[in-house]
Amino acid sequence: MNGTLQNMHLWRGLQVADGGVLAADLNLGLFDDGLRIGLWGGTDFTGDYKEFDYYVSYSVAGFTFAVWDIFNYSPELPFSKDIFNYNKYSTSHFLDFSVAYNFDTKLNVPLRLYWATIFAGRT
After folding, report:
1. pLDDT digits (tens, 9 = 90+) for 8-42
2. Which of 4, 6, 93, 113 falls between 20 and 30 A from 40, CA-CA?
3. Counting beta carbons within 10 angstroms of the beta carbon of residue 104, is it exposed (0 to 12), middle (13 to 18) or buried (19 or more)?
4. What span, in angstroms and rounded, lies between the C-alpha atoms of 80 and 7?
5. Partners of 101 in the beta sheet?
6. What is the maximum span of the chain, computed from C-alpha positions, in angstroms?
């Protein structure tokens, strides 16, 4: 479990919240932490930005595969209380798949290659 306090929230280069954000991540590692199941949530101090996500990831041989169910229910986005609504016209809910590879360099410089795509819901 961990928490963060940020002066703004960026996600893949997009500014999601322009004020202070409080976020928390609660996850459980299984099989020597190769499999992770978790919940992530965040909100800004004004209540304009709210997000609740759940995810699963699997890491092996430098690769990490992850699926995130992202539910951003900020006021300016379409909102549906149905947690299983992935209709891009009526929800801000979407599923995201990612693959990452961590290179093991002799220079002790962290290098990570990351690719992700939204495959269901709001695009």
Report:
1. 777 777 777 888 889 999 999 999 889 999 999 99
2. 113
3. exposed
4. 28
5. 63, 113
6. 49
Torsion of CA 101, 7, 22, 27, to 10 degrees: 10
Residue 62: HSE in the Cβ half-sphere, 13 Å Cα cutoff: 9
CA-wise closest residue to 103 among 119, 91, 114: 114
pTM here is 0.81
Tell me: the pLDDT tens digits for 53-80? 999 999 998 899 999 998 877 666 656 6
Query: Using CB atoms within 10 A of its CB, is residue 115 exposed (0-12), middle (13-18) or buried (19+)?
Result: exposed
Sign for the pseudo-dihedral over CA of 85, 69, 4, 18 = negative
**Alpha carbon of residue 64 to chain centroid:** 14
Q: Residue 92 in contact with residue 73, Cβ under 8 Å? A: yes
